[in-house]
Amino acid sequence: MEIEIKNWVIKPVSEYERYDLYRKVTRKNKDTGEEYQSTKDLGYGMKLEMCIERIIHEELRDKEQTQELQEFLQSYIKERDELLKELKKFKR
Q1: What is the 3-state secondary structure (H, E, C) of 29-55?
Q2: How far is it, in rounded angstroms, from Cα 62 to Cα 30?
Q3: Which of 10, 26, 57, 79 is geometrically suited to a Cys-Cys bond with 3, CB 3.0 to 4.6 A?
Q4: pLDDT at residue number 90
């Protein structure tokens, strides 16, 4: 089983509730210049909660802008809520 959220993949790795986290990326073949989909490893053996935290931080870091603390917290809460909304779809 894999959990896919946006451009992220969470894979369970054991019966001890641990997961590996990957980010979907587009890469380019050096020889042909052809683009293809791949994944980038972002963490191994993490609890699901840590995977979620890592996704939120990576999403916010991608924005690469300077923010006041209040703006950052609002962005963090928004990203968290969107991610949790996606995860709730799996509970049904």
Answers
A1: CCCCCCEEEEEEEEEEEECHHHHHHHH
A2: 25
A3: 10
A4: 60
Pair of tokens at residue 60? 């916010």
The SS3 of residue 72 is helix
- For the chain, helix (H) and strand (E) counts, in that order, are 2, 4
Cα 22 from Cα 41, distance rounded (Å):
5
Compare 62 and 19 and report the one with higher pLDDT.
19
pLDDT at residue 21 tops 90: yes
Query: Domain residues of the chain, as ranges?
Result: 3-91
Q: What is residue 13's DSSP assignment?
A: -
Q: 20 with 13: CB under 8 angstroms?
A: yes
The amino acid at 36 = Y
Reference 36, options 45, 44, 26, 46; nearest CA is: 26
